[in-house]
Design goal:
The complex is a heterodimer of chains A (about 450) and B (about 60).
Chain A (H helix, E strand, L loop, with lengths): L2 E2 L9 E5 L4 E5 L1 H11 L2 H8 L7 E2 L9 E5 L13 H20 L2 E3 L7 E4 L2 E4 L5 E3 L9 H18 L4 H6 L6 H7 L2 H4 L2 H17 L5 H6 L4 H16 L17 H21 L3 E5 L5 H8 L3 E6 L2 H9 L6 E5 L19 H4 L4 E4 L3 H7 L4 H10 L4 E6 L4 H6 L14 H9 L2 E8 L5 E8 L1
Parallel strand pairs in A: 10-11, 10-13, 11-12, 13-14
Antiparallel strand pairs in A: 1-2, 2-3, 3-5, 4-5, 6-9, 7-8, 14-16, 15-16
Helix pairs in contact in A: 3-4, 3-10, 6-8
Chain B lengths: L9 H9 L2 H23 L4 H4 L10
Helix pairs in contact in B: 1-2
The chains are: A alpha/beta (about 450), B mainly alpha (about 60).
């Protein structure tokens, strides 16, 4: 059944409809005119063949009441900027600027500048909102400049210059920080940078002084032109290309140096391959993916892998090696995944509403939920059951070396009961059949392949 | 005429002219001057569209 994409409603000229396996964009007359101009441009055919803009095919018979309709290939997994790493947002920003510059050279412009219009396909950012392109009208300023600073530039500044993660901010306020908020956040030493003085300080001041004043016509009459936008875009490209974030060596980035990881890795890989051959999944959701080793196995086995992890430093590394792989990355705490949010609570669906899968990998995960996040084992099993598909899960016993580390400052009576293997087997018995199991060399870890009952 | 669905922010629009090099600075100044004159004339009860080109009216006055 065809349904409106709940996140596609702000632009009256262009809206997306979704059904089981088709993505159709419907256009009003203004949207259709813009599409015709785009479709006729050399810019568009080059950008599509370069993989920078999603392909679009005009449908001969638009739905009733619509002036035009396009069909797009389906994006394997929609992710949002608050689930991206620093380099993902940086690459998306550079794509946005590059497309704007090239569009302007061909008499077109992009009427907004939000990372929600960009998705990652096989490790590369791709611009998916065809409806954002329209013919450039002489004298028009760059309407998306403020949005670009709030949703791309300022979040990148937070990470690159303050080493503060931008994702919690963008998740809490999807419009991004304002110039005035950035001015208050940046220390005095940073405020004297020329780029901060203009994009942050001056913008904040001018926004305060000129709020609500109509200036578009004045700019047009004063001789504004595309060359001015291009000069600004070039400066932003230079600024952003010089931004860098070096993740620390702590946390999960050092995970693969843990003794159990190397020792058990190939056994776990073989167990996963066995589950893959049994279920032939099209989509595999790797929960707590870490360095995405098992996601890659799923991807190599013909599935699209969705690697979810809460550690930005390690996902950053995975992203830089993900080009060409059938894999999507999502940065999210599993004990607090991205929720439904935005307009009416449905505009941006929750992570797990988007990450539908037909096989779940939960290796090296549930003991962290139980012992670190204090989630009762029964709730963890119930959560895995709600994915309603087979699961490969690693059970870790209370006497495992990692569990001892996780609980080194906790007394036994501060932990939820029912954490041993017998209790775990009892818990899963009500929700899953055990299709196969394998005890790992340590003796404290058991792999289960579970099928929902 | 407003064409877009996005609020671009008045101050941010003028700022981007300033960021567009020497040509942009000239455009920003002209737009700002025009804006100031329009505001002043409106305050004085004069129709800005009929007087904005009057050479006797200056932004500095």
């Amino acid at each position: 059944m065809t349904a409106a994409d709940p996140g596609s409603f702000r632009d009256p000229a262009s809206r997306v409809l979704i059904d089981a396996d088709r993505v159709v964009r419907v256009l009003d007359q203004r949207g259709l005119n813009a599409w015709k101009a785009l479709a006729d441009s050399q810019f568009f055919s080059n950008a599509v063949s370069d993989g920078q803009v999603i392909a679009a095919t005009e449908l001969p018979d638009p739905p009733q009441g619509e002036s035009g309709a396009l069909e797009h290939p389906r994006v394997p997994m929609i992710t949002y900027p608050y689930e991206w790493t620093f380099s993902m947002l940086k690459d998306a920003a550079m794509l946005q600027l590059d497309l704007l510059a090239r569009a302007l050279d061909d008499g077109l412009t992009i009427k907004d500048a939000t990372p929600f219009n960009i998705q990652f396909i096989e490790g590369r950012p791709v611009f998916i909102d065809i409806g954002s392109f329209e013919p450039y009208r002489e004298g028009e300023p760059w309407i998306g400049y403020r949005q670009f600073t709030r949703q791309f530039l300022f979040p990148l500044m937070l990470r690159a210059w303050l080493d503060v993660p931008f994702q919690p901010w963008l998740r809490g306020d999807m419009e991004g920080p304002t110039a005035a908020q950035m001015r208050n956040l940046l220390p005095r030493g940073k405020r004297s940078k020329p780029s901060v003085m203009v994009h942050v300080g001056l913008q904040a001041r001018m926004e305060e002084r000129m709020a609500g004043e109509a200036v578009r016509d004045e700019l047009q009459q004063a001789g504004f032109n595309a060359g001015i936008i291009l000069a600004n875009v070039e400066k932003l490209q230079n600024l952003i290309s010089g931004m860098a974030w070096e993740p620390g060596a702590d946390g999960w980035a050092a995970y693969d140096s843990c003794s159990h990881v190397g020792r058990d890795r190939e056994t776990k890989a073989g167990f996963l391959r066995h589950a893959m051959s049994r279920h032939r999944p099209e989509r595999v959701l790797d929960l707590g993916a870490n360095d995405a080793y098992f996601s890659e196995i799923a991807s190599d086995g013909g599935a699209h892998a969705i690697a979810v992890d809460s550690d930005e430093s390690i996902l950053e590394r995975v992203y830089k090696e993900s080009a060409g792989k059938s894999m999507s990355l999502a940065l999210s705490e599993l004990a607090n995944p991205s929720p439904d949010q935005g307009w009416s609570g449905v505009e941006r669906p929750s992570l797990f509403a988007r990450a539908d899968a037909d096989l779940i990998i939960a290796y090296g995960l549930i003991h962290h939920l139980i012992y670190s996040a204090s989630i009762p084992p029964s709730l963890v099993v119930g959560w895995l059951r709600r994915f309603d598909c087979p699961v490969v899960v690693e059970f870790v016993a209370p006497d495992d070396e990692m569990v001892k580390t996780l609980t080194s400052n906790k007394h036994d009576d501060e932990l939820h009961p029912g954490r041993d293997e017998a209790a775990f087997r009892k818990l899963i018995a009500g929700s899953f059949d055990i299709a196969s199991e394998k005890r790992l060399g340590s003796g404290t870890r058991v792999l289960f392949q579970l099928a929902p009952v | 005429m407003i064409f877009g669905y996005l609020d671009p922010g008045s101050g941010s629009l003028i700022l981007q002219a300033l960021l567009g090099g020497i040509a942009g600075i000239g455009v920003a100044y002209k737009a700002w001057k025009h804006k100031r004159m329009t505001k002043r004339l409106t305050k004085e009860g004069v129709d800005p569209s009929s007087s904005v080109d009057d050479p006797s009216v200056t932004a500095e006055s």
